[in-house]
Amino acid sequence: MGQLVVNGLALGSIYALVALGLLLIFNTVQIVNFAQGQLLMLGAFIGISGAVTHELPMALAWASTMLAMALIGIVFMVLVYFPLRGRPPFLVILTTIAMGIVLENIALIIWGPLPVSLPSPVRGPPLRFAGVVISMHQLFIFCTLAVILLLQYLMLTKTRFGILMQATAQDLHTARLVGIPVNRTIAVAFAFGAILSGIAGLLVAPIFLAEPTMGGSLGLKGFVVSVIGGFGNLPGAVIGGLFLGLIETFGARYISSNFRDAYAFIVMIAVLVAWPRGLFGEKSSEKV
Amino acid sequence: MTVKHWFPLALGVVVALLIPAVTHDNYVIQLLNIAILNAIVVLGLNFATGWVGQINFGQAAFYGLGAYTTGIAAKAGLPWITTPFLSVVIVMAASLVLGLPTLRLRTYYLAMTTIGFGEIVRLIIVHWEPVTGGTSGLRAIPGIGVFGIGPQGQVQHYYLLIAVLAIAALVAARIRQSSLGRAMIATKDSEIAAEQSGVDTTRTKLIAFMIGAVYAGLAGCLYASSIRFISPDSFSGTQAILLMTMLIVGGMGSIPGCIIGAVGLTILPEALRFLGQWYLVLYGLGVIAVIVLAPGGLASLASRLPRWAGAR
After folding, report:
1. pLDDT of residue B306
2. Distance, in angstroms, between A36 CA and closest chain B CA?
3. What residues of chain B lie within 8 A of the CB of A109, using their CB?
4. What is the per-residue pLDDT across A44-75, written as a single tens digit (0 to 9) for each?
5. pLDDT tens digit string along B29-74?
6. Using the 8-state DSSP alphabet, how is residue A159 labeled?
7. Residues A155-185, buried b or exposed e (16+ Cβ, 10 A)?
8. Which H or E run includes B279?
């Protein structure tokens, strides 16, 4: 029982990270990126290329992955979001999905279809108390989520950049009129969003193996979390993520592991029927 | 309808009718049969997505529900004639269950719920093995037949499916011209303005969604009893995205566009098989290019040159 809680929270932390990446982009441009899972997959594979193929030290492999993800995030924005600014969000959903297909198949061409493993950046014997085993990697996941959550909270509320992001989200044209570098703000948001999903990929690869098709279901879990927590809601994303991780772990153990992926959607549909804007409310509402 | 409209239509019908005279390759005809079935499904998707503007990734699941209902019923020994009705009843029930609580949701939430619905249906098909055959699917499904009379061979199926597609397109065109069709367009343009003019937008959305599901259910029924083999892969989330791209590439809201998109994107992967994995890379980039450069799809490009072919 205690073990299931730990495993569920570790899984949920990764879902929360995917959702935090989505949130950064959503809070700036009001766009939901349906290729976030594929960005996560790229993060895992770039990390594997660095740490396993080129035998870089782990810290260097992580740093180079984050740098690469920032660049990929900006290229992604230029291809998928920029040409469609001001067009219905419906179309951007489709371009991000199409970009997800492109990224997945490029990964299949480069790295092949076989699953690969990435070692954890932390080593050491697992912690044990009261019959519950917490591996070093799980501990590392919890710490990473806590640090990122704190940094993101400070960035969004205390820094100049956070304010620029909010202004851009509220009204792009007015933001530009008052001299906010709108394009640069959006580019930074996409870069950070991609970095966060890259980190999630680096954290997932040591638990499950990395394969080019891993992005689809992890990306969807990120959206489910965003829906449960309310799009653009920071505490909602974290609580929603942990909640979903627990639901899946317990559902797989006590109901049926065949339907593991269905629990997320059943919970999401149930939440939406009762609260159409998520459990914790949405950051901003639709403009008339 | 003027000669400008009739000419491309007549041309399309003549070409479609002549294809089996040109090729006797059963593989080509079977591929075209699947393309026609996909066209019917995309015409259905066009009601909710093209005309009402509601995103829907559940269409492949309705297609699958129709196909599996027919497959299971026919294998259980029910006469073929009952299967279209059973399929329609099942998809209508499913579309009500999905549509009633969710159609008031906004874009992203609706996209996610329909993806989730498709995923749940797929998981049930995959794991309910004794009935659905699991991942290996259902084989040797009894063919179409009424009192022992039914199409034999791929070519006869082809003509039957062409006829069904023609009826499906005509019905869609009639609905578009009706007050219901105008309510759909009004809902898409502005829900608030439509409500102000007395359109019940929730009802309009639900009806469009259900008509689309019925199209998919009937196409699924014909798929099961003409291809006679079904597996979960044909009705997965990937297929739902593919159906959506057929609609976008062909031209949202345009009946010829739906048919062009469905037929084109069914045949293209087979024609470009030599590209291997690169096909999907180019496919993704191609979809982005169409959305960015030609928002009305291929149908709008055709109508931009000479002023025919786009019967919006």
Report:
1. 54
2. 14
3. 277-278, 281
4. 999 999 999 998 999 999 999 999 999 999 99
5. 999 999 999 999 999 999 999 999 898 999 999 999 999 999 999 9
6. S
7. ebeeeeebebbbbbbeebeebeeeebebeeb
8. helix B278-293
CA distance B21 to chain A (A): 37
Query: What are the extents of the domains in chain B?
Result: 25-236
| B98 vs B109: CA distance, rounded Å | 13
**Whole-angstrom Cα distance, residue B288 to residue A103?**
13
pLDDT tens string A243-268:
999 999 999 999 888 888 889 999 98
Q: What is the DSSP letter of A80?
A: I
Give ipTM to 2 decimals: 0.87
Strand partners, A210: A116
% pLDDT > 90, chain B:
62
A151-191 pLDDT, tens digit each: 999 988 888 888 888 888 888 888 888 888 888 989 999 99
Tell me what pLDDT residue A19 has: 93
Distance CA B285, CA A101 (A): 9
Residue among B284, B261, B226 nearest B38 (CA): B261
Q: What pLDDT score was predicted for residue A288?
A: 39
Q: What is the CA radius of gyration of chain B?
A: 19
Residue A251 and residue B111: Cα distance in Å, rounded?
24
**Cα A16–A22–A28 angle (5° rounding)?**
135
> Which token pair is B289?
């290019």
Q: What is the mean pLDDT of residues B242-248?
A: 94
Q: Residue B152's pLDDT is what?
A: 86
Asked if A103 and A39 touch (Cβ cutoff 8 Å), the reply is yes
Mean pLDDT of all residues in B12-38: 87
In whole angstroms, give the CA distance from residue A36 to residue B300: 31
Identify the three-state secondary structure at position B31.
Answer: helix
Residue with tokens 């309808």: B1
**Do A264 and A223 touch, CB atoms closer than 8 A?**
no
Rg (C-alpha) for chain A, rounded Å, is 19
Q: Which residues contact B32 (CB under 8 A, 6 or more apart)?
A: B19, B158, B263, B267
Beta bridge mates, A132? A129
Q: Please enumerate residues of A whose Cβ is less than 8 A from a Cβ of B.
A: 32, 34, 79-80, 83-84, 87-91, 93-95, 97-102, 104-106, 108-109, 216, 220, 223-224, 227, 231, 258-259, 261-262, 264-266, 268-269, 272-273, 276, 286, 288
Q: Which of A142, A268, A235, A203 is nearest to B108 (CA)?
A: A268
